[in-house]
Here is the input.
Amino acid sequence: MREPSARIVEAQPKPLTVGEFNRIVKAQLEEEFAAVWIEGEIAGYKLSSLGHAYFDLKDDRENARVSCCLFKGTLARTNATLRDGERLLVRARASIYPARGQFQLIVDTALAAGAGAQAAALEALKRKLAAEGLFAPERKRALPRFPRAVGVVTARNSAAFADICRVMHRRWPARIVVADTLVQGADAPARIVAALLAIQRDREVDVVIIGRGGGAADDLAAFNDESVARAIVACRVPVIAAIGHEIDHTIADLAADVRASTPSNAAELAVPEHDAVAEEIAGHGARLRHAMRARVNSGRVALARFEKRLADPRRLTENVRQELDEGLRRMESALRRTTTVRTRALTDLRSRLDRAHPRVRLSGDRARLVTLRQRLTPGVRALLGERERTLSTLGALVSPALRRIVDARTWSLRTATARLDALSPLAILSRGYSVVLANGKALTRSDEVRAGGTIDVRLHRGALTATVLDVRAPDVSPPDVRAPDAALDARPGPRRRGTRS
Here is the structure.
């Protein structure tokens, strides 16, 4: 009975420690509720010695509250009034303080409750532009190393423009092109977009700084406008955003290729420092001189090594000259052998060509022809006499039989001619008959034509065209027409004469 109990104990899961459990719940909460907007009334507001703010947001209608933590950096950027009884709209992530297992909200944005609609609209615009890729890091362009001219879109009389000019004149002698514009107010977004378009017409402008000094959230509202963000993205050169102070973040900062914490920092990013560039060039020059010096020294060492190996050039050519003489001797010997062989072959070919000359061959052929003619003449004469005698004998035997065959064929030809004449339509027409045609067809019945119609009459010699006056139906059946050559069939054929072989 103890073994089942032991197996049950072994099957139980390993228990978690309190710290492990708190960390697991913390990770799941922060993943599930990474950014939530909550509105409530501040209660129990406290400021720690490190500058962090702790308070509760309560909902009296449902008798509920939640603990909140606002760290020092976020608190410095917050413009809302934080005190008990104030209604607050916060964006936070849910978390747990692992040491005590206390549920809390880590606040990253705190606004007065009345500004909730404006903040929600701003967040919606950020999500929309991010979904279109306007904030994507891969879209951002690198700044030019040595710009010819720097464009500045800001108020000409502002402290921000003065800081930019001061820093740039101190660091690098680049030309500054300013597009004066409003930076706050209802008309500011359209003026900023127009200034961006105007400054791009200067083809020497390689980078643009857009910005202004610090201010409240409402003062920076022009740089949260959608048209400004799209104009920054569409700019033909990289854009540096220097809006407000380091703690201020606008949509223009997200859309720009580079964000600067202040206008002075933007000037530092736009142009290099002259002394640093000079120092870099000097370093490159020193490294180049060192590399060239090392290359020259290495070449000198290699040259000295080659000089030792080269020695007297005439010694290098001795073997070559001997090899050249030997090669010439071998070539002359091979040439003589080849010439001898070719001469013998040429002589042999000439002898064979002489024997095959047409005159020589023609003389031999004539002699052979005379001999053959002398041998052939008596035999041909004897053969011709024998063939003449055979032909005479055969002619005597063939002449009577051939005459009989010719007589039989002549009689057959005459019989056939008589039959053809009897069957010929022209022969029938010559005996007074005619052929009546209507529409190109021969008429055999009277009902094949109507009164008043036209018919053609074919005679033995010539033809007529007539008009039908009356049509009568046939009253007797057509007579039995016998073949005209029936009488000819009754004629006796030629009497065959007996032949004797």
Q: What stands out?
A: The first strand starts at residue 36 and ends at 47.
